[in-house]
Amino acid sequence: MPNVYFFGDGHADGRADMKDVLGGKGANLAEMTNVGIPVPPGFTLSTTLCIRYLADGRFPDDLRSEVQAALRRVEQSTGKRFGGDPPLLLSVRSGAKMSMPGMMDTILNLGLNDATAEALARRSGNQRFAYDSYRRLVQMYGDVVFGIEGPDGQDLFEDALARLKAQRQVGRDIDLSAEDLRRLAARFKEIVRQEAGCPFPDDPWQQLWGAIEAVFKSWQTKRAVDYRRVHRIPDDLGTAVNVMAMVFGNLGEHCATGVAFTRNPSTGEPGLFGEFLTNAQGEDVVAGIRDPEPVALLQQRLPRAYAELQRAGATLERHFRDMQDLEFTVEGDHFYLLQTRTGKRTAQAAVRIAVEMVGEGLIDRREAVRRVEPDQISQLLHPMVDPAATPEVLTTGLPASPGAAVGQVVFDADAAVERAAHGDQVILVRRETSADDFHGMVAAQAILTARGGMTSHAAVVARGMGKCCVAGAKELEIDEAAQVLQVNGRSVGAGDWLTIDGSTGRVIVGRARLVEPQLGGEFGTLMAWADELRRLRVRANADLPADARRARAFGAEGIGLCRTEHMFFEGDRIQAVREMIVARDHEGRQRALAKIEPMQREDFIGIFREMNGFPVTIRLLDPPLHEFLPRGHDEIAPLAASLGVPLEQLHHIVEALAETNPMLGHRGCRLGITYPEITEMQVRAIFEAACAVAAEGGDVHPEVMVPLVAHVEELRHQLNLVRATAEQVFAECGRRIEYLVGTMIELPRAAVVADEIATVAEFFSFGTNDLTQTTFGLSRDDAGRFLPFYVEHGILPDDPFQTLDAGVEKLVELGVRLGRQQKPALKIGICGEHGGDPRSIRFCHQVGLNYVSCSPFRVPVARLAAAQAALGDRAERDV
Ligand code: ADP
Ligand code: MG
Ligand code: MG
């Protein structure tokens, strides 16, 4: 296999489907070349070479001649000479298989030294340009290859530049003279000699090899490793190196450089969207140093280039059948594309683009459903600032990533992480962000920057994470040392509350009121397509009528888990519950339960009404009783008085009910078995409610679920009680309701004897939260002390409470197999939080569950994930 892949003159050795070997950037440069897009010639060094180099610490012997041959072709194509006259300059760019924005560094203008810089100046007739390019090379090379920075991490090159500008009393780089820039290049070379302990290499070939090695090594830098961890990118992919002929957007006002999306990445609206700068090079646009102009203005400035950009964008969209993110440079009469990739987009844009591309005949419905990331669409369900409110707007920036969030201000990434770890909601405020802020952006609710455009680091990364972001809020003056920001004399300090509205760009003082979004339009269309494709049903976990209503609005097809105990805390019910707990005999308990029963009935009536026509699984009381009692003396004393129980005695009861390990204690069906009157009361409430709603003409499907069953006899006991009580209610009401009695499978014993349990159970629901706890022998409440460490150090691949663990999956698989062996048509679902996790949903689909149940907000996520699981299934069968 070759190490080097050439592209240029309308032909490339590589192709778009060779991302494994060429990285994303290299594969797409090859593809663009092959489809006739103007791309400067160059070649790609493979990822395989990277891995080999990192392992061996040196290059294979024949690499030198391979690179020389490729470079000769670039020289022929451009008519320039590397190290000669006219000088060929190169860019050296990293590019892994997955796009890793800002993670790897690029070197531009490689090949310049005193001699070639002079030749460049002469040939271009533009001395400023030549020496500006030269000083940029030395600066980038010093940074990337030698890792030069000041003792406090400051940028020595930028400092020297700033000093020179101050000396010359000019504000902008472009106001420096050619001679200034020539001296600056020399000064930069001195900095390299001092800091690196060796001279800047004048030999272009030495520059090239140094740059290639630096790019390969940058695969191992901390920020690259961190990024891969967060995004689950394997460490053994390696990065490719792309070496390309330089083209120049900085030769004058007839030149430009910019970035453009083929559709709006925030809203999905069709048409070019992006920014450009005239007379600028490379990263000037992204870095936010000068303020770029919207790409629409390019049409006025450089109409021919704009037409070329439109044509290239249209060609590439048709070719790749997806929205593209382009980098372009205009060098006088010549227009070049330097990169194309699938554009990152907000959830809103992803949905609109997928649906519109079906309309345009670019993709089919299945592809549209595949295109949208399930986790991402949960953004669409999240709040926005109440349009009816008139909040106090501090300032406005660019609406860089939509959604709204409320949080307390922090000024650096570490503080964001620290505060978030304490459960605080924070807004990360920075002048601008870089890859070093990444961990803080992950931890923050929203990001606010003072500088940069719609394609700045903050904007791109925030959109990728689905986090709201306002960028380039120019009025912000940030004083990091004093931990304060100022806008027109008004100051906001660390810890103060702000609301960030990434949809409009508003920065709002204090905590604004947020409201729920609308779910129609393209979102509704896409979800309808997903519903046609999926096999899994999706239910919601909902305890109250209001949750049930929201769940239905999000498309839930029933309730998979209704936890009755949440109702116990409502209003003054807790008093009756406590009365029941302190009662010393059956009669006392029944008196208290009689007070609770009508309240429970009302809740169930509300839920049955909301879920008209859909099944509702109601779990009998689960938590240990002590959870309903107060702890401290201060609370116990008044309770004793109000219950009319001697203080001494109440203390006794509280003590007696205390458990060392409540997770494994007197809870679940163990309660209903030892206190059957609790089960009777709950079942009575359920069926009285069901009869009442049926009497109104409602269509009710109750499913009574017994928690924490380990042994079939436990279930049999409760089932008999449920049946007997239900019969009584039916007799009293004069009507019958169809219903099921089933159990949670949340203990390993239940999973391994699922066949026995299925002789009694009419349905199973895997309670994977408890099943994970009991499989691991691990209490979730105490897991915080070591679980994050485990995940960080790769001892566990994921948090098992978020994504089903492989061991827990085995138990689920066993439970399903044994259960269905006994009862082939057994209805089986999952009601742990995993029911809303796309990867776990995939497993649920594969293992043949009937439904998943998750929180109402995750319902659309689950619908989409279930459709994708079904599509994956089919694709596998197609092979
Ligand atoms: P990143 O992956 O961070 O975007 P790139 O390798 O794409 O880094 O390059 C950084 C900047 O340099 C981009 O703006 C790109 O367009 C510009 N650039 C890269 N190669 C060339 C080249 N051959 N000529 C001119 N500009 C280039
Ligand atoms: Mg790029
Ligand atoms: Mg449980």
Percentage of residues in helical conformation:
40-55%
The bound ligands are: adenosine-5'-diphosphate, magnesium ion
Mean pLDDT, to the nearest integer, reads 92
Structural class: alpha/beta
- The number of strands is 34
Instruction: Tell me the overall shape.
Output: elongated
Radius of gyration: 33 Å
- DSSP strand (E) fraction? 15-25%
Low-confidence stretches: 875-879
Sheet with the most strands, sense and barrel status: 8 strands, mixed
Number of helices, counting only DSSP H or I runs of 4 residues or more: 36
* Biggest β-sheet: strands ordered side by side in the sheet: 15-25-24-17-18-19-20-16
How far is the first residue's CA from the last residue's CA?
A: 27 Å
Structure description:
This protein has 879 residues and is an alpha/beta fold. The chain contains 36 helices and 34 strands. Strands 15-25-24-17-18-19-20-16 form an eight-stranded mixed sheet. The longest helix is centred in the last third of the chain and has 25 residues, at 586-610. The radius of gyration is 33 Å and the shape is elongated. The two termini are 27 Å apart. Residues 875-879 have low confidence and may be disordered. Residues 327, 339 line the site of one magnesium ion.
Keywords:
36 helices, alpha/beta, eight-stranded mixed beta sheet, 18% strand, binds adenosine-5'-diphosphate, 879 residues
Give a brief rundown of this model.
With about 900 residues, the protein is of the alpha/beta class. The site of one magnesium ion has 6 residues, from helix 31.
